[in-house]
Amino acid sequence: MTSVKSLYFIIAIATKKHSSPLLLFQLITTIFIIFQMTRIYMYLSLARKMVFQDGSIQESCGDLILCSGGTSDRIDYYIVNVLTKQWFLLPRTPLENNTHFMSTSERVGFLIEPSFVDNAPCQYLVLRFISWGDSKFSIHVFSSKKGNWTRMVVTSPRNLNMLTRRTSIVACGRMFYTFTYERNDVVDCVLAFDPFTNDPAQFLSVIDFPPEARDKPCLTCKLGVCGGRLRFAQIVLLPSRYLYPCISIWELEDDYRIGKWTLVHQRVPTDTVFRVPALATKWVSVLTFHPYNEDLICFLVGNDHIVYNIQADKVESSTLTSLFEKSLDVHWYQLPAIGGQHPFELKAWIRAVEHSYLLLVVHILLIQDVVELVAPAMLSLLCGFAYRDRNGFYS
């Protein structure tokens, strides 16, 4: 059903915004690409069932996907190339004595090392971050160049409270990043990891958020990448009868060691789609930044995906049926559920597979130069399958 919905959403957005003579050709090209990617999606689904026991897809980078499976005290990692359908099993991860913390506090990052040599073999890194409570954590780094894991125990310069342990690891350039909370709803700093350094003193850096961001209790925060730069989104609710979010977007300067942030956007959306019910504290969250367009951000508002142009204060696309053409015969609420379940109630591994599948579709669309036709639709779709944990936070 998801593939049908994806195709319907693309056609709906395309026919709404484009009427050029090349529209039919572009649509046929897009449908063909999606058909090919659906085959890859089915391959991933089947392979997951055959190889993994309670497995999941962790991260993706380029055409590579990082998967994991195993028990709470021993996890196997696989690198999957969905284009060549090749699987590579990483060596066993180092043993940890703190298995309780592993099961609740492990996070994973994945990056491909940039290469400036033509036809050079792909080098990638996997980073495991395992908290040992509030003061220490383990770091496991796998390098495809070295072919093994290295392990270190680090004393955290900042408190790793329970909320901090749920923030994701973000890869940007040659670095990994995550952020910490000072208390429940107030952020503290960014932790930057340099996996390529041989100097332990240079491995971990602390980047403080600007005072304007640290002093505000926030509804939700998101660390991500746009145009190769690290960005931080913060949503603060304004007090009123109907709550409207104030969205602030900060960007880190190229030299992360300086720790200078620039406020690139700050906006209170005027569209009523962003209006938050008084009792719905988790109503709005940032799913991701557009990888290239600095003005586009994808939100989850309730159960709907909104692609919002923060510069123009305009909703570019959405899964809300009210934003589609009234003449369309099929509506989202008329599409059948799977096994009696709403799509958003499907298991997390399905969402993760579809997330990577759709991410790759967008990557192919960018190569095929049809991104202007389908990017807003596909962006909101690929963002929509983010994993919601039991406490309602998004990774």
TrEMBL record:
Keywords: Membrane, Transmembrane, Transmembrane helix. InterPro entries: At3g26010-like (IPR055290), Beta-prop_At3g26010-like (IPR056592), Gal_Oxase/kelch_b-propeller (IPR011043). Residues 60-300 form the F-box protein At3g26010-like beta-propeller domain. The chain crosses the membrane at residues 23-44. It comes from the Eukaryota. This is F-box protein At3g26010-like beta-propeller domain-containing protein. It comes from Solanum commersonii (Commerson's wild potato).
